TrEMBL record:
<comment type="similarity">
    <text>Belongs to the SMC family. SMC6 subfamily.</text>
</comment>
<dbReference type="GO" id="GO:0005524">
    <property type="term" value="F:ATP binding"/>
</dbReference>
<feature type="compositionally biased region" description="Polar residues">
    <location>
        <begin position="1"/>
        <end position="14"/>
    </location>
</feature>
<dbReference type="InterPro" id="IPR027417">
    <property type="entry name" value="P-loop_NTPase"/>
</dbReference>
<keyword id="KW-0227">DNA damage</keyword>
<dbReference type="GO" id="GO:0003684">
    <property type="term" value="F:damaged DNA binding"/>
</dbReference>
<dbReference type="Pfam" id="PF02463">
    <property type="entry name" value="SMC_N"/>
</dbReference>
<keyword id="KW-0547">Nucleotide-binding</keyword>
<keyword id="KW-0175">Coiled coil</keyword>
<keyword id="KW-0234">DNA repair</keyword>
<protein>
    <submittedName>
        <fullName>Structural maintenance of chromosomes protein 6</fullName>
    </submittedName>
</protein>
<dbReference type="GO" id="GO:0000724">
    <property type="term" value="P:double-strand break repair via homologous recombination"/>
</dbReference>
<dbReference type="GO" id="GO:0035861">
    <property type="term" value="C:site of double-strand break"/>
</dbReference>
<keyword id="KW-0067">ATP-binding</keyword>
<keyword id="KW-0233">DNA recombination</keyword>
<feature type="domain" description="RecF/RecN/SMC N-terminal">
    <location>
        <begin position="57"/>
        <end position="1018"/>
    </location>
</feature>
<dbReference type="GO" id="GO:0030915">
    <property type="term" value="C:Smc5-Smc6 complex"/>
</dbReference>
Amino acid sequence: MKEMSNASVQSLSLSKKRKVRENSMQSSSKRSRNAIHLNQSERSISGIDDTRRCGKIVSIHLTNFMCHSNLRLDLSSRVNFLVGRNGSGKSAILAALVLGLGCNAKVTNRSRSAKDFIKIGETIAKIEITIANDGPQPYEPDEYGDSITLVRTITAGSGYYAIRNCHGRIVTKKFEDLQRILLYHNIQADNPVFVLNQDSAREFLKELEPSKNYQLFLKATQIDLITEKLNECLHLHKAHREELINTEKKLQYMQNDIGVHKEKLKDLIAFEHLEESLKNLEIEYHWLLVKEQEDRLEEINEKLDKYERKINELKKLIHNKDVVNILTQKITESHENIKTKNKDYSDINQSLRQIRQQNDEMIRKRSEIEMKIESLKREKLRQEKQINDLKQHIDERSKSNQADVDALRRQNGETLANYRTQCENDLTPIVESLKRDLKMFMENKSQKALIIDKIKQEQRSCSNKISAIDNQIATVKESIKNKMLIYGRHMPELLKEIDKARANGKLSVPPVGPVGAYLQVPNSQYRDSIESLIGPKVLQAFICDNASDRRTLEKILDKICKDNHPMIITTKFMGQIYDVSHGRVLPPSGTSLLMDLIECSHPVAMNFLIDRIHIETILLTNRNDIAESITSTRENVPKNLSKVIVLSAESMNLEYYPVPHYRMYSSKIHRPKYLQINVNERVKDLEMEKGKLENQLSILKKDLGEVIPQLSKDDKQIHSKRMLLEEKQGMLMELQEKIADLENVEYADYNNELQLLKNEIKEKDSCLIEIDRRIDENELDLNQFKREEKALTNEYERKKDELQKIQAEIETIKATANETVKALNAAKESAEKKGERIASDLTVDDVLMQKARFKAKLEKGRPINMDQDSLEDLIRHKERELETRRLVYDNLKISIDSLRASLKHRFDFIKKFKGHMSMLLTMSFEMILRLRNYMGDLVLDHQNKTLKISVIPRDHDTAAVSSASALSGGERSYSTVAFLISLWSCVDHPFYFLDEYDVFTDEVNREYMTRLLTEEGRNHAWRQYGFLTPLDMSLNPEKFIRIHRLAEPDRH
């Protein structure tokens, strides 16, 4: 305990050459107990609980290991300095640590075999390392307890491991269990970043080669191990991909093999029925011959039918030779009636007699056309005579006098101009002015009528409000005896009906309401704002437990208060208030939470306010600056805040909503009507409000008395203007009628009459031209008829010749048909002897080819030397095997695709991880260099796999970048330590051991490095550090530092 008071520095003067005495094990156990007691005392004195971490080295006990006969070292859980001259066995402790944690001898850089570490003259060496298992996430604490002791025994022939629990009992001797413990606690003793031995430290300080620096970076971050594993997975993926391709080929071969066997099975089944099939083919062949003859006969019959139809048509055409005359008649009558022409044409085709009659009619029509032509010619002569008479009449009228008519026209024109001037200059402006004046008076009257209606409406509103206030005053006074009256005169009766329904079993759970009856606001300062925020509808509402109770309550409300139902909410009743600890707002200074300001006597009512208004998320305050501060900036917004209410001295509140939807609204507040009202104050407020309304009512009466007389005056002016307007409009209409009469006067105009007669002559000339045109058209139609008559006669002769040829062909076809019938009968007789008729889609050639193929197979014999059942069993066996292998193939393909996607994802992650670690390493390195006023940089080239350290010491030219190899010993040592600490900041490990970190440095840099390493231990209490140095150590007393001084080496 005295050593603990002296900065927990333990000086060990241990003899390197001590002999193993008989009581060595006893003294070792005693020291172990003392060490455990010392560690527990240290924790209790320092009060640091966060130093506990599984995987830290508690103690190291070496027996006959290198230069140590029996050495026990109890380490601090934070910072340890091992001080001793060269040869005192510092590096041996580090080598024992590496070997004891499962590494091979090569990792120590001292030997290739573990037996070389046995002390000279001894045959067995033992390493006992106790690691902590009392921190977070211990390894099997029920089995091992607070600590795990790893024992490695080395003999000349071999060695073995043993793992003990905290009580010294051996739990296991398997090396796999040791690896499992180290992996669980993330202990990597073979990683030089965590355990840097003497040789590696010196080589690293001397060279600082960029490629080795980069390899150290990869090993520290375990990127090299991850990359190695990923490459192994990549090779595994390629091998499996090749295996998948081979499997796919095998599956295809198996599928083809099954297909071959199935074809053999088909051939075997077909061979069994081959003779029967051949017989059926023979029958099918003969019936196909019958079908060929039938098809041929049917084709001949179709030709005969076709020729018969054509003969009938030609005979009909020959017998109806007068059809030419009928068509001629149709042409001549086409300009009269198209329907009559079609009907006549169909009648001509029905009967030869009708054709002859219509032929006579056609001759008669031709005569009529000729008569019509003569009639048109006579009409032409008559029109010419009328034209001559009109010309004579025009000559006679041209000699009359037009002078009197022109004088009357001039006089009427002057009178008309005078009337128009009076209308435009005198009467029309007066009428328009009177209309405008009348419209203006009408609009003024309408506006004043609207004002009167508005004043009367406001009077009614004031009177209604005064009546309502009188009722409220009476209700408030009566509420002294019954507080429920403040919710309406119907409320007591409503509550009685609810109690009656509950007693009769109509309600399973009594409704909770009105909600305001269960609420209180002790602080009167907030009462107005809280009641306005909650709202009268919510305060008057009732809450039901289920839909059935809601329907019952609605029936009661329909009975008691039909016109004004309170709001009904249906929600499941809870026996206690919601736990809103995770959703409520923690009110900042100067604010109050709405939920804390409300006292509620029923949990259902309180839960209803939480659900509907979210009272646990609303804050109230008296200051605008506080509200703006906690809502306008994201960093200041309390968690779960929905809005802030700012109380105002006036009748308005301000509502602030936090970012990201920052905004502010104002809301009007009213005097409280329901929450803990003072009857006298409430009556006084209502009487004051009533007085204001009465004053407003008297003002309205005064305004109404001023407006009504103005309305009567406007009526008189409107009547006067309307009478004058009617008088002027009458005068204007009289003049307009006179103007219309003068404008409608007709004057005799001989010149115009003469022009009309000339126009009539022109019309008669046009009629003559039209008559000539019609005569020409009729003559053209007659000529066309004659041409078509000749063409039809020629067609008749041609069809007659064609008919004779067709009759000759028919005779030839009939002879062929007779021969075909004979062949058909013979084929049917032969086929019926073979068997019944078989329907087939094959041709005769197809059947002959199949017969030849079947005969060849019969001559060849069975296709395979197996029976049908055996072959079917073989196919089923192969199909099952194929299905099994296909399932394996599908699973393998899914696994390979999944592995490929996983590899791509992890290679991408490694790339990003390298960049992240590079940035973190560089920033940490630059920060540590700045502690010594150095400047420097780490240049990582991932493509070339180099890490170059560039350092500019202080007092040097900042423009010159110095490589690490150009630095002095002290500067290089400090840069190296800075680099190592930077690597430590990128990774995490239970412990870090560094051997001879100050071997090449001067005193100043050694002091800075020691202080830097000490600060690293101070800032990372959850890590354990061990620093080995051959130089003496003087540090300020610190509770977290322990110095272990090894005895002087024996030089004899």
